[in-house]
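REQUEST ID: PR-0412
SUBMITTED BY: lab tech R.K.
PRIORITY: routine
TASK: structure prediction, single protein chain
INPUT:
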Amino acid sequence: MKLTKTKKQIKKVTNSISKAAAHVKKSLSKKGSKAIEPKKITEPVSVAVPARPIKTILISQAKPENDKNPYNELCRKYKVEIEFKPFIQLVGIENREYRKYKINPLNFESVVFTSRNIIDHFFSLCESLRIRMPDETKYYCMTESVALYLQKYILYRKRKVFYADGTLPNFFKVVLHHRNDGEKFLVPCADIHKSDIPDFLKKNSIEFAEAVILKTVPVELKKKDVSFDALIFFGPTSVNSLIHNFPDYKQRNQVIGGFGPLTLNAISDAKLRCDIIAPSVESPSMIMAIEKYILASKKKK
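STATUS: complete
OUTPUT:
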């Protein structure tokens, strides 16, 4: 009898501990990180307020070079005005700041270039450091246009300049095909950048170094620059730039759109409401998310 009674008491205490642990876990999850759960990012999210008509949209990025882009089609189809203005800019760092990284470009047989902007700042930095890249240096570029831009700084030779079609899988294929054993790669980049290329090099045991030659700074904005029905952000730094320029910014009825979990986090941290969210199951692209919002606003009429 006593044994049975003791077992019941143990079971009762165990249940109490389990409930207490569950309560603590729930409390911690509420007080912890503000990171957005994957479910909230990948599944369609209903807007916090009813969709309202939008006629003017600002995209916080540079205008596409090609006029035949999906934004123009959106303007034509729904009679909306779309303007482009980057909220951030990349500024080249001074050689004094670069020296603290202790990375000498001359110690690398190959250099990776992902844009013409990176090329300009790389060779400008080399000039200020009084460095001349050897003629034997190999260059791996993301696209043919980036590769051809190298002619501005080097004697262009196809046997030392290789390029891809603009996609990462093709770029990785080009690197694996042309690299030699023991070849060291230098990857000039901005202070904020994607890790796709470094991750690829690590995975394939290719020796490399990332050289930060650009830093991201906010663009000076005026009130007219943000006087639109909707503001669309594609990165957390653009959201931070908005708050940097307008510390007392109030969203009110202005529609805000965000692409990607990091951008959504930045919008949330700024205590703003995100009305247009991408990617999602129904809207894998921002264009589709904007179109979905416009259609929802028409149904409210």
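NOTES: Confidence is low (pLDDT under 50) at residues 1-14, 16-47.
REVIEWED BY: pending
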